[in-house]
């Protein structure tokens, strides 16, 4: 019995922390979403059932924020994976400068979101370095662009920030996966006369497929949960046009103190993320089964 209890004793601290800081708040948020929740002492929270969810479905700004989250996800996931794989392939070969380049590419990942978001905000300000370079130095534009004052250009800035900061993480995952590519397969492909592209398509890509599935799921989840960069770069402006789901939820809950509606928005996002993750895993499993067949 003592031997059998040891693994559970090691697991207990993590499980307890997960239950206290993840499971319990999630359950509370689900409960709050069915109420007109009041935080004032002595105030009574009124049961409203599904009214908060109906309100979200009928709220044009919720759909705008969801669209912006979707645009961010679609614009950042594929470039992060493609560029991460390309850089990993370049850094796979051993060289004296390889460790330096690995650190340089990974540095944005470990840099604070606050620091890099404020950096991009100042770079793309009306009198920032980007406008100076394009307008005053290279003369590629007739006038300065107000990058953060329009929805389209502001989303471009936020997406570029997300791609730049996430490439290093994708690179490290792919570098780890590339270490597991059997050298015998590479050598056999070379002996069969396969070129670089053929070896990449027939040997490398299938070998790193588990890493690709993992990255796609995690990056989709992260893309739909974008928050800090939007708050710090545009704060949802102009007039809420760059709000994403989490910034809209945050404003409803902590600016307007409408915790019931904010919780309903959070629950809808959680359901969407869960459904997309399950679909991705099922598609990946189906492709793996077809490959084995």
UniProtKB/TrEMBL annotation:
Residues 66-280 form the ABC transmembrane type-1 domain. It is a multi-pass membrane protein. It comes from the Bacteria. It is found in: Cell membrane. Its main location: membrane. Keywords: Cell membrane, Membrane, Transmembrane, Transmembrane helix, Transport. The chain crosses the membrane at residues 7-27, 71-91, 103-125, 145-164, 207-233, 253-279. The keyword Signal does not apply. CDD domains: TM_PBP2. The keyword Transmembrane applies. Belongs to the binding-protein-dependent transport system permease family. This is Sugar ABC transporter permease. It comes from Pseudolysinimonas kribbensis. The lineage of its organism: Bacteria, Bacillati, Actinomycetota, Actinomycetes, Micrococcales.
């Amino acid at each position: 019995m003592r031997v059998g209890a040891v693994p559970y004793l090691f697991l207990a601290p993590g499980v307890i922390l997960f239950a206290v800081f993840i499971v319990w708040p999630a359950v509370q948020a689900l409960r709050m979403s069915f109420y007109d929740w009041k935080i004032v002492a002595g105030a009574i929270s009124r049961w409203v059932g599904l009214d908060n969810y109906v309100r979200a479905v009928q709220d044009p700004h919720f759909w705008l924020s969801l669209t912006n989250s979707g645009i961010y996800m679609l614009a950042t996931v594929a470039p992060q994976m493609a560029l991460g794989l390309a850089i990993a392939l370049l850094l796979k070969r051993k060289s004296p400068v390889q460790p330096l380049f690995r650190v340089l590419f990974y540095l944005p990942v470990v840099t604070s979101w606050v620091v890099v978001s404020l950096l991009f905000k100042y770079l793309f300000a009306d009198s920032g370095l980007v406008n100076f370079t394009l307008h005053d130095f290279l003369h590629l534009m007739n006038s300065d662009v107000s990058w953060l004052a329009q929805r389209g250009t502001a989303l471009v800035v936020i997406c570029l920030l997300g791609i730049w900061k996430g490439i290093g993480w994708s690179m490290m995952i792919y570098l780890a996966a590339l270490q597991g590519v059997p050298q015998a397969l590479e050598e056999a492909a070379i002996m069969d006369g396969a070129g670089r592209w053929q070896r990449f398509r027939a040997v490398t890509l299938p070998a790193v497929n588990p890493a690709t599935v993992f990255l796609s799921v995690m990056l989709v989840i992260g893309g739909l949960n974008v928050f800090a960069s939007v708050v710090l770069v545009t704060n949802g402006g102009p007039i809420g046009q760059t709000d994403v789901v989490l910034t809209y939820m945050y404003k409803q809950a902590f600016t307007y103190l409408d915790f019931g509606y904010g919780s309903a928005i959070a629950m809808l996002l959680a359901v969407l993320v869960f459904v997309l993750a399950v679909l991705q895993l099922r598609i990946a499993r189906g492709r793996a089964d077809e490959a084995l067949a």
